[in-house]
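Hello Y.,

Per our agreement to keep a running log of every chain we model this quarter, I'm adding this entry. I've kept the format consistent with earlier entries: sequence first, then predicted structure.
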Amino acid sequence: MKQPETRRGRPSKEKNILSPELIVSKAKCMMAGTGKVPSMRAISKELNVDPMALYYYFNNKNILLEGVAKSLMSEIYVPSGKLDWKQELKELSKSYLAILQKYDGLLKTLLSMSSNSPADVFISRFNLIVNPLKLRSDQEKAFLDLLVDYLHGFSMALACDSTGELTIDHADNSLGFLFKGV
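Predicted structure for the entry above:
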């Protein structure tokens, strides 16, 4: 049986099968399945296109990773404004931990990126939640830094827990303790 040929260069407009959304979606699925950031070649193989076709939509892998990371971050909790700020912040924090747990390579990707746009998603939602507290800007930044550092450390602990006993719900008490200081 002959393999279907992939064509080099710009994707065909007639087929119109390839799009930035499809590429990002495939990369996210692959990341969830393997726990690793997929290569451009691996993504193109899964999509049955020439690797150069991906470069029509994304100039380089870093731009694709930014798109994937931003898409994943957009899945985190959106504050409703109906809950008390502590509960809203717990929901945001736990949904962020869930995304980091599901997509194992995401934390490393976020920390090594030169772009802040994926992190800006979390920051903007954090700001929506804490704005009513009327914190000074230095206090708000310190709170954000402390929270994010805690979440990243907890995410690493989850990833290293070979027993499976540590869960995202274990973060509740620590988050509650952290929030008491605000």
